[in-house]
Amino acid sequence: DSHYCAHLEHPTTESGCLERACATWRVGEWTPCSATCGQGVESRAVACMTDSREVDPRECTTTRPEDRRSCLTQCPETKANTFKWRTGAWGDCSEECGGGKRTRVVVCQDVLGEITSVTSLCRDTKPVSTITCNMHPCNHDASWIFSAWSQCNQTCGGGYQHRQVRCQSTRGVPLPDTACPQAQRPPHVQTCHTQPCYHNNYVYKWRAQDWGQCSVTCGHGTQYRSVACQRVNSLGWTDPDPVSPTLCDAATRPQTQRVCHTTSCQAIYSWVPGPWRSCTHTCGKRGKQTRRLFCYHKDGKKVNRKNCPRELRPQRRRKCNRKKCGFTSCKDVQHKMNHRKDREYTMTVAGRNLSIYCYGMNTVAPVEFLTLPTGEWENYAEHYGKSLRNPDMCPYRGQRVDFCPCTTEYASQAGLTRFYKVRLNITSLKIIGNDWTFTRQVSGKPIAYGEAGDCYSRYHCPQGRFSINLTGTGLRVSPHTQWKSHGHYAQKEINKLEEHRKVTGKCGGYCGTCSPEFGLKLDILPP
């Protein structure tokens, strides 16, 4: 009983306590709608928090707020509603009698004037574009007569020939053209000598790469491709190195961008192409590639191809490997013939069969060399090693005299290299001049093929020499190859001989050198 403890201090029966705050749900801001047009999804972050710390969601006792919800964005007026059929004026009748046709232009066009090839955007029935006319019978006593063709006005590149065409009766009486059937009128002009005009065995043509992917996955986008001006020789080989666009006809330059019409952004079905299969041929004119095309529902399920719009179907076939047959590299010889011996092989170079020396055939990366029939005495590169004591003069009228009043101050830069084979990039037809595998080093350091120099004089007096002689190889130095001087007081004298099969040069300065400006480019000899 409590009265027994009345003289004692009574303990408290309750006290305060400090517990952590209850966990609650915290939500972030809704993200923008995933669709810019039509139905999409919004999302937000949802976390169970206590004291600004994320905890196990099970500690939150209330219902978890939603973190995703559907949203609907107002769409602009669809193109399907803005496209309508537009018709042009009827043309003249194709025949004066016997039944002809009149045609007009019919296009699917939007209110802004944009014409589309996707005719399904125009919902109404397409207007007719052709009607019959002048159905009355013709006068069968009239017929066309014509003269012989005139001479072509061009010898190449495409010209024209003309002839007279007249209507006359069976008795030879001239009649107006309207008396003869227009559909049977013989042409009075035709093209002639359409083969291209070759300059130095080459013609310049535009070459376009394949179109890139459309910039959008639905709706109207843009596609791009690269276009370059390239040289094509008379054998059909295209030089892979582009040249100046000014050498090609600007009027025929292919377009580099175009509008691409993909599936509508509201479309239920869309095309998905598979990968391209291997080419049917490795060379020749019959190579083709194909790929499979699939039709998918917007939910990702593959469906029958009939559901996808035919006018938007991607390309299913294309040409491939349209090149002349024959070995194209030492690696090609090694792979196809299982040869492992270093020797001369016949292979197709720039459209013509040439003898190429294959080196390193017992390795995984054999390389090509061009054997020089004229030998090392006609194929050398030199950096002359002597310097005039008075470099402001040019004694002996510029001729080399080895007992000149000279020093050997710069002899460490000198060298004389003779070549009997040169390394060739068989794709670009460029000499790799600093490969000295098949050379004889006469003196000093190795000098690259087609280069020369000296430290002889500040006056115009070059003594360094090089010689290139490709006679017997089937190749020549390209007329486009030019030499450039480098260094101080640099001078050069370049001589191109025997239709560019032979090139010699004298280069020098104080100190000065010369070398092919954009690489030592070769060409196939003209036929």
Automatic annotation (TrEMBL):
InterPro entries: ADAMTS_ADAMTS-like, Pept_M12B_GON-ADAMTSs, TSP1_rpt, TSP1_rpt_sf
PROSITE patterns: GON, TSP1
Main location: secreted
Protein name: GON domain-containing protein
GO BP term, pick one: extracellular matrix organization
TM spans (from-to): none
SUPFAM superfamilies tied to this protein: TSP-1 type 1 repeat (SSF82895)
Location in or out of the cell: Secreted
GO molecular function, one term: metalloendopeptidase activity
Gene3D superfamilies per UniProt: Thrombospondin type-1 (TSP1) repeat (2.20.100.10)
Domain GON: 326-527
GO CC terms, sorted: extracellular matrix; extracellular region
